Amino acid sequence: MTYTCFDISIEDQIAHLILSRPEKRNAMNREFWTELPAIIQDIDANSKARVVVISSTGPHFTSGIDIAAFATDPSSRTKEQRLQAGAKFHGEVRRMQQTFSCLENCRLPVLVAIQGGCIGGGVDLITACDMRYGTADSFITIFETMIGMTADVGTFPRITKLIPEGIARDLAYTGRRMMADECKETGLFNQVFATQEQMMTAVMAKAKEIAARAPLAIMGCKRIINYSRDHSTDDTLDYIATWNASMLLQEEIVEAVTANKEKRDGNFVDRPKLTGFID
């Protein structure tokens, strides 16, 4: 299938999504908000891959939300449209929030590779991913502040759990750029690389390493890590005990141990497809 905003390839159990509008600085137009969740949900529900990698094209990862694509002339609205504007805006924002929540909620690890600017809505995107990598010239900016807005599609509930709150407040209140080295120092980026080529080589190698592990075990790790972020230690310990009571697979453990001993790839079962029915 052809998409407006993405090029997609799946190889070696790795789904690679590439933002493909460099001439527009990969601005997030209307199609972006429907294409991304559709792609992720298809890959996840149909178990088409074990890892997702998101990267980009051109000098910048993304310039954020394409404001022009959503702009309307207030003077052209009817009275009914004016009265409904607040409720409609709330619904639109909630839908856009779900576009990035799909990255967090899917069963696969999502790695993102960032070059140049990651601006505005781009920060919402990368904070919903599992692991972040950047080039030496990359930077993030909560740019909404610079245009009189409050970021509303996911940055604040996530970035404050990834970096110190004081730094997050600094970024939000000033709209300043945080360069790659600071992103690495604060823990937002896992690693920083001199060039995009070096970054992509390393990110794809990391994705391949993850794809070689037992998919159901990786799914459990993501589920528990996400749960622990929003719950107490005691609640999380109880949750993981319950999880493993139903999900711990002795055959997979034996296969993992044997594969390691024999220095070969493990022969693991994939995540089940999300059909909605028990076969």
Structure description:
The protein is an alpha/beta fold and 279 residues long. It has two domains: 206 residues, 2-enoyl-CoA Hydratase, Chain A, domain 1 (Alpha-Beta Complex), CATH 3.90.226.10; 47 residues, Lyase 2-enoyl-coa Hydratase, Chain  A, domain 2 (Orthogonal Bundle). Helices cover 48% and strands 14% of the residues. It contains eleven helices and nine strands. The strands form two sheets. A six-stranded mixed β-sheet has the order 1-2-3-4-6-9, sandwiched between helices. Strands 5-7-8 form a three-stranded mixed β-sheet. Helix 1 runs parallel beside helix 3 and helix 9 runs antiparallel to helix 10. The protein is globular. The two termini are 28 Å apart.
> How many distinct helices?
11
CATH fold-level label of the largest domain:
2-enoyl-CoA Hydratase, Chain A, domain 1
- Which residue ranges are poorly predicted, with pLDDT under 50 across at least 5 consecutive positions? none
Identify the quaternary structure here: single chain
Total separate domains: 2
Spatial extent as radius of gyration: 20 Å
Cα distance, first to last residue? 28 Å
| Estimated helix fraction | 40-55%
Mean pLDDT: 94
| CATH level 1 class label of the largest domain | Alpha Beta
Count of distinct strands? 9
- Largest β sheet strand count, sense and barrel closure: 6 strands, mixed
Structural class: alpha/beta
